[in-house]
Design goal:
single chain; alpha/beta; 5-stranded parallel β-sheet; 13 strands; binds 3-amino-D-alanine
């Protein structure tokens, strides 16, 4: 076991899930330290790690941990991550923000895809949730058939916008049930209950949003795709609470057969094939919620790309596979290397 794992930003939606993942997976650490600004001083009860008093962040305290999981803003991470990892214990910093994702010297890691040595770097970036969820199905298909084009449309839950996003959706629906109306939004740009919003993050010069470009940039980096492979995404916020869904169309280098692809995905880590239309079984965010595996289904030959193309739908828990679980899996690899 290592001596200590720290969670910085422990009281947010992702931070809370990080603690649960450490517990669920019986993470090999003597102690967990929790850091947050507003929640400092409160006590969190855990089964495996006892009662933990939340601390205000300090560099010295973070440097006492062998591993620090960051669920904080990019600005915080930009300032503190290098300092934390530069401490006496060479703390492994795993950052959930986008601050370091596109820095060449910082690995962007999904452990089942490009983990191993990459997870042992002093600072490791966790991908955006939309990328991480889609990558679980796309990577095995890429390895076997070679991706040429990826066209993704997303159905992203309120949880992607954090605890405040989830609260605004829940409050709005309760309010509608009582009064038949929903108050103007304070957090999202538009009302989310009974609506969909085709904008997540800021618009870029090319007309795509930053959320959409993250899928392009991050799949390129994680899979090591050449510039010839084109990835395009339309990202949409939908009024579900948790778990992102994605409709994906791929064109492949080699011929692809849906039955063979289904079998391949059945044997791929982090994936659960749910694909029996005759029994009305397909991936849905409600079923994916709380689960570590990404559900993949509606697998069919693409009308557009014929025998060189596939279309499918997936749902994966954004807070787990898309954030907390991925970070904890990276931490497990980092710790295994430390203890070896
Ligand atoms: C979202 N992917 O769903 C973002 C969060 N990182 O808003």
């Amino acid at each position: 076991k290592v001596g200590c794992v720290g969670i910085i930003g422990c009281s947010g939606a992702v931070g809370e899930e990080m603690l649960k993942c450490l517990e669920d997976r019986s993470f090999p650490t003597e102690r967990v330290r929790l850091f947050a600004k507003r929640a400092a001083g409160t006590v969190v009860k855990t089964e495996k790690f006892g009662e933990i008093t939340v601390e205000e962040f300090s560099l010295e305290a973070a440097q006492e941990c062998e591993v620090c999981l960051l669920a904080v803003s990019g600005d915080f991470s930009t300032e503190w991550s290098p300092k934390i990892s530069g401490g006496p214990k060479n703390t492994s910093v795993i950052d959930n923000s986008s601050a370091w994702r596109y820095t060449d010297s910082v690995p962007l890691v999904i452990p089942e895809i490009n983990g191993g040595k990459n997870s042992e770097a002093p600072l490791v970036a966790n991908p955006n949730c939309t990328t991480a969820v889609g990558a679980m199905a796309l990577y095995p298909l890429h390895q076997k058939y070679g991706l040429k084009k990826v066209i993704m449309s997303t159905y992203q839950a309120a949880s992607g916008a954090g605890a405040e996003g989830m609260a605004e959706l829940e409050t709005g629906i309760k309010e509608f049930a009582k009064t038949g109306k929903v108050s103007p939004p304070e957090f999202f740009a538009h009302q989310l209950p009974f609506n969909v919003i085709p904008q997540i993050d800021a618009f870029q010069a090319n007309g795509y949003t930053k959320e959409e470009m993250k899928v392009t940039w991050e799949l390129q980096k994680i899979f090591g795709l050449s510039d010839d492979v084109k990835v395009s995404c339309t990202a949409v916020r939908v009024p579900t609470l948790r778990a992102h869904s994605e409709s994906i169309v791929i064109e492949t280098e080699k011929k692809v057969d849906p039955d063979e692809a289904r079998e391949l995905l059945r044997n791929s880590p982090g994936v659960k094939v749910v694909d029996d239309p005759s029994k009305l079984m397909y991936p849905m965010p409600l079923n994916a919620t709380g689960n570590h595996d990404v559900e993949v289904g509606r697998i069919r030959q693409s009308i557009i790309f014929g025998d060189h193309g596939l279309e499918f739908f997936l749902s994966g828990d954004q807070l787990l596979r898309g954030a907390a679980l991925n970070a904890v899996l990276i931490a497990e690899q980092a710790v295994a290397a430390r203890l070896a």
